[in-house]
Amino acid sequence: MDFFLSEPLLVLVRFGRFEQLLAEPKPDAKYGVLSGLWHHAQGMALAATGKPADARAHVDAIRAIAERLPADLMADLNMGKALLEVAARVVEARIADAERKRARSRSGSRRSRSRTSWRTASRRTGSIQSVTTSALRCSTPARRRTRRPCTAPISSATRRTGGRCSVCGIR
């Protein structure tokens, strides 16, 4: 039942109201799932506000609460332990993202999107091609008549049509 009491916390996390989250009082320890989700909300807020070390303490607290929960405790339609494990992993991901952004801003060398190389798979041949984001092009290896790769730029209109290329029609 304490899962439903955590809904306001999850709404604050969803809409990024981190200052309000940090002001929320800690719930009673007898409500295991609510306490774990409070730690989740606090960890998300601390990671988003640039305090990843403090957020890690909340991840440890979530895992400690999950270990103490009974194995058959349900939180809505999910097992309580599984729910808190997911909550801990989400906070860890937010911490990693915050640390990556922090390291990037410290180094002062932000890589522009144009230098990032992605690998895409062509459905027709199963081959993997390297595509640079500065010139996102259709990844069809060769048009039948010209035997040259399709060089149609992938535009926002192409993305709106489900990713189909306007020249060769391949996704």
Keywords summarizing the entry:
2 domains, 7 helices, globular, two-stranded antiparallel ribbon, mainly alpha, 171 residues
Please tell me about this protein's structure:
This protein has 171 residues and is mainly alpha-helical. It folds into two domains: 2-107, no CATH class; 113-160, no CATH class. Helices cover 50% and strands 8% of the residues. It has seven helices and four strands. The protein has helices spanning 2-5, 7-14, 18-23, 32-48, 52-68, 80-107, 156-160; strands at residues 74-75, 78-79, 117-121, 128-132. Helix 2 (7-14) packs parallel to helix 4 (32-48), helix 4 (32-48) packs antiparallel against helix 5 (52-68) and helix 4 packs parallel to helix 6 (80-107). It is globular and about 65 Å long. 24% of the residues are buried. Residues 110-137 have low confidence and may be disordered.
Main β sheet profile: 2 strands, antiparallel
Figure out the total of helices. 7
Instruction: Tell me the number of structural domains.
Output: 2
The low-confidence parts are 110-137
Structural class: mainly alpha
Biggest sheet strand order reads: 1-2
Radius of gyration: 23 Å
N-to-C series of helices and strands: HHHHHEEHEEH
- The helicity comes to 40-55%
Percentage of residues in DSSP E strands: 5-15%
Distance between the termini: 47 Å
- Which of globular, elongated, flat, extended, rod-shaped describes the shape? globular
On the 0-100 scale, what is the average pLDDT?
Answer: 77
What is the number of strand segments? 4
Write the layout of secondary structure elements.
Blueprint: H1 2-5, H2 7-14, H3 18-23, H4 32-48, H5 52-68, E1 74-75, E2 78-79, H6 80-107, E3 117-121, E4 128-132, H7 156-160
Antiparallel strand pairs: 1-2, 3-4
Helix pairs in contact: 2-4, 4-5, 4-6, 5-6
